[in-house]
Description:
Blueprint: E1 19-20, E2 30-31, E3 51-52, H1 56-66, H2 70-79, E4 100-102, E5 108-110, H3 117-124
Parallel strand pairs: 2-3
Antiparallel strand pairs: 1-2, 4-5
Amino acid sequence: KDGWIVQQPGPENSLxxxxxxxxxxxxxxxxxxxAKQLFxxxxxxxxxxxxxxxxxxxxxxxxxxxxxILDQWNKARATGKEGFVELPREIPVRLFYSTILFDDEGAPxxxxxxxxxxxxxAGALGFGQRQGSRLRAGGDDVGx
Length: 144
């Protein structure tokens, strides 16, 4: 009734092979994913606020190299077991949320607002809230 379901580590784990813990009050972190095909989709959010990284292993290697702990990272990976590699210092992370982007030709691309942040900003500016701007979870929206 009040138990836990734990997904075992490995390449098919929803968080993929690498998870980047970040200091924050919302339990948001960066992570890999076995669902690489989602990066090609326009609306690709499937998680609960955490952020999938396209080449998480390459990103982790770059951080390890830049922070002087590449040997430690490589040894941890070589074990094939779940592990934790501590960085010698905190690295600030800034996440940018935008529903209006620009394509390669400079044309605006407007995306859905799955978290409803545009409504809060519109309300604060004195505009009414739009209906139907949030995405609704479907039957296949589980995991990142």
